[in-house]
Write a sequence for this structure.
């Protein structure tokens, strides 16, 4: 469920969680577990996405643009820029982006002083056009469109492009129609290739192993940052980039994204771990819920078993060609028959059954009521039909899956019972 944004800090490495680990008391169990993580053996990783695959993406994009009558597509910094070009860059007030024409090679637009770094990252044939601090970067885009005789054709904007880019391009080309690039960018990114699936599988394997490592070493009295530090240490040693997580203890687990109230691990209390990591830019998102150091109460066990059943209902509903929203409908109707809801009311499930996942933890499309996009081979989703009882506790089990010719396939196998939460 965690959502991760692209920032300069994310891209340049490091992170608050690993820094926080250094502040743990040297005598604490968490500190010991962080140090012991150094003994873990790295998991073999698939290779990163190749330049050849990125070229294939550009070719597919051009084909879609021609069929849709789109003259060019503008994509600014973020996962989609990486997807097409290999450039991993953060968003700021300065434009770095790619203009992909329906015919011919793209151009990269970036500040002059960033050109050497951008050139190092660029993985496809493209001219780099630079602008100085007192230049208008959208004029570079407009000039390119004029050169290619595209200024009178619709220009597609990637859906997360910021408003000021459209506003300033329209100042340069007032009569140029601007349209959604979703049929091109979203249409391609929703369907993962075998290489992308392999990277997501590696990330999921590492995420599951890291949760198991931390869960088995959680001790009474630990606070969320201590548990998080153990997960981060395991992630780093196993070979992934840790993108952070939610460590929800006791009543905090009743709220999907937690509470500002401070909780520590106590015997018999629910602990919910919802964490993400990435391998060569591709994400995993897994949640495990368990009861610490005690047999689960009848109520805790009942809710856990119902969420476990909810995951299976979602998988049964995820059929090739079915609307994505029908998966959510199947789970929610069953939950309502058990007395939860109705719809998003609590106690029950206050969020969608799942979200798309790939280069971003959350990306289109979602398993939510009303989403009519047909499920297709290569689509990837989370499956997390949590149940929450405000003031008491919540249970969320989350495993991601991808669609195959024969139906949905989990990246990670859901645990069999609340007594074996990391199996």
């Amino acid at each position: 469920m965690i959502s991760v944004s692209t920032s300069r800090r994310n891209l340049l490495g490091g992170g608050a969680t690993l820094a926080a680990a250094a502040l743990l008391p040297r005598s604490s169990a968490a500190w010991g577990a962080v140090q012991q993580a150094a003994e873990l053996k790295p998991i073999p990783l698939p290779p990163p996405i190749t330049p050849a695959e990125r070229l294939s993406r550009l070719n597919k994009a051009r084909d879609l643009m021609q069929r849709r009558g789109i003259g060019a597509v503008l994509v600014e910094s973020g996962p989609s820029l990486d997807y097409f070009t290999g450039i991993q860059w953060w968003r700021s007030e300065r434009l770095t982006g790619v203009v992909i024409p329906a015919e011919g090679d793209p151009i990269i637009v970036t500040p002059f002083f960033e050109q050497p770094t951008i050139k190092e990252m660029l993985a496809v044939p493209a001219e780099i056009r630079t602008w100085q601090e007192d230049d208008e970067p959208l004029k570079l885009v407009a000039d390119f469109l004029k050169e290619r005789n595209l200024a009178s054709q619709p220009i597609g904007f990637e859906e997360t492009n910021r408003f000021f880019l459209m506003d300033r391009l329209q100042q340069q080309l007032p009569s140029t129609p601007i349209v959604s690039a979703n049929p091109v960018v979203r249409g391609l990114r929703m369907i993962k290739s075998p290489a992308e699936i392999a990277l997501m599988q590696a990330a999921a394997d590492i995420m599951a192993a890291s949760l198991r490592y931390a869960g088995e070493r959680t001790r009474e009295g630990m606070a969320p940052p201590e548990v998080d530090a153990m997960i981060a240490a395991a992630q780093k040693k196993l070979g992934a980039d840790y993108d952070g997580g939610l460590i929800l203890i006791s009543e905090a687990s009743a709220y999907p994204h937690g509470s500002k109230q401070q909780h520590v691990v106590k015997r018999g209390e629910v602990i919910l771990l919802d964490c993400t990591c990435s391998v060569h830019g591709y994400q995993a998102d897994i949640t495990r819920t368990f009861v610490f150091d005690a047999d689960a109460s009848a109520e805790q066990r009942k809710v856990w078993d119902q969420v476990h059943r909810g995951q299976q209902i979602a998988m049964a509903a995820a059929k090739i060609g079915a609307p994505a929203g029908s998966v959510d409908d199947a789970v929610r109707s069953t939950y309502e028959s058990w007395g939860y809801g109705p719809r998003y009311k609590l106690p029950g499930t206050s969020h969608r059954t799942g979200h798309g996942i790939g280069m971003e933890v959350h990306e289109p499309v979602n398993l939510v009521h009303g989403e009519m996009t047909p499920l297709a081979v290569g689509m990837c989703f989370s499956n997390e039909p949590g149940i929450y009882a405000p003031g008491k506790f919540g249970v969320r089990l989350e495993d991601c899956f991808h669609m195959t010719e024969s139906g949905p396939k989990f990246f990670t196998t859901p645990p069999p019972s609340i007594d074996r939460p990391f199996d």
Q: What stands out?
A: Residues 8-39+193-410 form a domain with the Creatine Amidinohydrolase fold (CATH 3.90.230.10). The two ends are 21 Å apart (CA to CA). The first helix runs from residue 8 to 12. The CA atoms of residues 344 and 351 lie 7 Å apart.
